[in-house]
Amino acid sequence: MLRTFAALNSKGGVGKTTLLANLGGLLADMGARTLLVDADPQPSLTKYYDIPYEAPQGLVEVITSGTVTHQAISHTAVANLDLIRSNDGEAKLQHWLFDRADRRVRLARALNNPYVHDHYDIVLIDTQGAIGPLQTAAAFAADTLISPLPPDTPSVREFRSGTLRVLQRLESDTDEPRAQLAPIRAVICRFDYSRDAKSLLSELRNEFSEGDRVTILETVIPNAIAYKDAFTARVPVHTANRIGGSRYPSAYEVMHRLVWELQPDLYGYFAGRLKGDPQEVFGGAAQARGARDAAVPTPAA
Length: 301
Known about the structure:
Layout: E1 3-7, H1 16-30, E2 34-39, H2 44-48, H3 59-65, E3 74-75, E4 81-84, H4 92-98, H5 106-111, H6 114-119, E5 122-127, H7 133-141, E6 144-149, H8 153-172, E7 184-188, H9 195-207, E8 214-216, H10 225-233, H11 237-240, H12 251-262, E9 269-270, E10 274-275, H13 278-282, H14 285-288, H15 290-293
Parallel strand pairs: 1-5, 1-6, 2-4, 2-5, 6-7, 7-8
Antiparallel strand pairs: 3-4, 9-10
Helix pairs in contact: 1-12
């Protein structure tokens, strides 16, 4: 069954593109037929990987035609990972969508067609920071929303007062048909294990308990240089950093654990289409709880 994820956060520069590119790279390496959709007028996701084949069409044609065909599918240098590229450099789609009665469901309907269902298992949609008609369409196209969240006060404040409130307003808009958005999975990223970061993470976990609309995922993405190096090299981070250090776990482990949280049916599947016991590979259940244990503030000296 096709699964669709959209990265959404009203604050720019929180790492949406990097997160989706690395998730897509690992999912494709696991054997999932994966489609990236770059719904950001600033085409960061389009530029993340080399593109040996660039399709003549892109997001503009998908939105305006209301469907996806092979003419909009570009192929990245990562096997099993395709892309609908951003080709809306002047951000005209926002204005085009604004006056359409079906603006909320335009992208959802375009992706929900036989071509996409026959060729892909997972769709990952990137968006820009500001919320507008295109970001709204991406949100309503997803069955899971992913929100990267750095553990710093400005980002957390914007998540509470910006992203969450905007989504609530979208659901209660009296001028639109009532529709509930997908659940939100917040991914703590750029985690540096400092006292402040641990305290904020603990606070967030207490605020959003299990069963809430928002779930703070157990896996955290550390503030490690490996993620920047992979971005520079234009490769999935799990291929570039397979061995962890004394401070941070490897990106190979982190990204696998993140995929398993988002897609539990893939638990035990690894890059290279391998299968195994994650507890044996990564050192057992105790290490799996490391991210959560790190959220407990350290005692004052």
